[in-house]
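Session log. Operator J.P. requested a structure for one protein chain; no other inputs attached. Running the standard single-chain path with C-alpha cell output.
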Amino acid sequence: MTISTTAATTPSAHRLSMPHRLWQSLPAGARREALAALTSRLAPQPDRRPPACPAGGLAIGGGFSEASGLGESARLLSSACDTLGLPHHDVEIATGRRVRERLPAAMPLLLNLNPAQLGASLLGLRRDALRGRLVVGYFPCELPVPPPSWRHAMRLIHRLWCPSRFAAEAFAPWARGVVDVVPHPVALSPPAPSTLGRAALGWPKETVVVLVSFSLASSFERKNPLAAIAAFRQAFGARPDRLLIIKAGHAAGHDGDLARLREAAAGADNIRIDTVLRSRADAHAMTLASDIVLSLHRSEGFGLVPAEAMLLGRPVVATDWSGTTDFLDASCGVPVPFRLVPARDPRGVFEAPGACWADADVEAAAA
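Structure written below.
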C-alpha cells in the first residue's frame, strides 16, 4: 500500500491553509491596506527629521531592471544625472530582494517605487539604510484621490516629488509639506530609436500608421485601448491605406484582455495586434515609424508614451485630462474632450472612494 504525503493532505498543510483561506476571504482592498500598514512599520525607518545639510549627490532606489513605467522612470533619472554631471548611486530595490550594500553616507535617497508596496520593497534594505539622510519619494498617481493603502508610504519619506501637477494635487492632502512637481526628465534622456523600420515591421510604406502603445501588465481599463480601436474604425472604416497598430506589451497571463482586443478588432484587416516584447530602442523605433500616436487613456500619472512620441516628432492625439495636460495642448497636439466617470478597475488596483477618471469622446477623436 502506498501512502501519499502531499502538501494537500498533511495535517500541517491544513493548519497553514486555514489562515490562508481566511486571508483570501477578505476583500482585496482590505488585504492591501493591512499589508501596507504592516510592512510600512516593519521596514527600515527614516529619522524623524532629515539632516539640515544633506551630502551632495543622489542615491536612486528603484526597479532598474524592470520592464515597466516605474523601471523606466528610474533609468531616466539615472541617465539625467549623468547628463547633468550629478554624482549618483543607483540601487536595485524590489519586493523580496535583499540589498546588502551600504548606501553612501548622508546622501539623499530618492525612492522611485510604487507607494502601495513601498514598505514591502524596503524590507530588503539594511536596518539603518534610511538613517542620517533625506528620504524623498518619487510617486506617480493615476487617480485624483490615491488609494487609501498608499498613505502608509508617507511615514517612510520626508519629502514627496511627483511627475505631474495631477499627481501632486492628488497627494497634497497627505504630504507633510509642499509636494514638488518634478517631471520625468525625458528631454535630458531623449528616446534613442534602433534602426528597426517599416520593412522589418511589415508595415506598408505608403500607409498612414496609427500607433497605440501600452502594457497589458498595467490597468487595461485605465489605458482604454478599446476606445482607440472604436475611434479608428469610426474614422477610417476598412480603408486599406490606414493601419492601426495595437502594441500590447507583457501579454503573458492576460488572455482575457487580449481576447477583448481581438474581439474589438474582429473583421478589420487594417488593425493589427502586436504582442512582441521589444527593447526600448525598438519600441521607440516603432513610434518613429508611425504617423500618429493615439492615447485615449482614462488617466495617466505622467504619460511617458505621449511625451516620448512628441520628442520624436510624432503627432499625438490624447485624452485632455490628467498627467498629459502638463505638456500637451492644442498648440502642440490634439487634446480629446472627455467626460468624468467613476473609476472602476476590475483588477482593483486603480480604485479609491470617490475617485473618477476620464472617458474620452470617441466621436471627437475620430473627427
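Operator note: Residues 1-14 have pLDDT under 50 and may be disordered.
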